[in-house]
Write a structure and sequence with these properties.
The chain has helices at residues 6-9, 13-31, 62-73, 81-88, 98-111, and strands spanning 35-38, 41-44, 49-51, 58-59, 79-80, 121-124, 128-131. By secondary structure, the protein is an alpha+beta fold.
Length: 138
Amino acid sequence: MPSRNAENDFPRRKGLGSLIARVFRRRRAARSPLIVEAGDAALDRGALRFTAPPGPPVSLTPIEARLLEYLMRHADTAVSHAALLEQIGGDDAASGGSRADLFIRGLRIKIEDDPDRPEWIRTVPGVGYMFRSGPDRP
């Protein structure tokens, strides 16, 4: 008979905290509207599509849609790497936020006319990123 101890009976704290965070995120998402708008841009959470005139709708992955939704709900406000990592569902302290940076880069490639000169998702040095909703997007 294998030996049993308390460590085998309970999930680790980090795992349980992650599970609870995911449950709350999903419950919050289920209550919020399917279309998120910021300025001229719209994100259809159900279809995982981003639309910004004059371009065609752009298909997104679920993680990209979560990140973009968070940025759009906090439009014109700097959002930290830590807040974005929470949306991805991970802890990236060891890599300095590089996982969030990779997803932001992928989003820029999909939604920006020129990903190297972004208009929608701007970098805020020392903080993270900002979704620009206004018509005067510099």
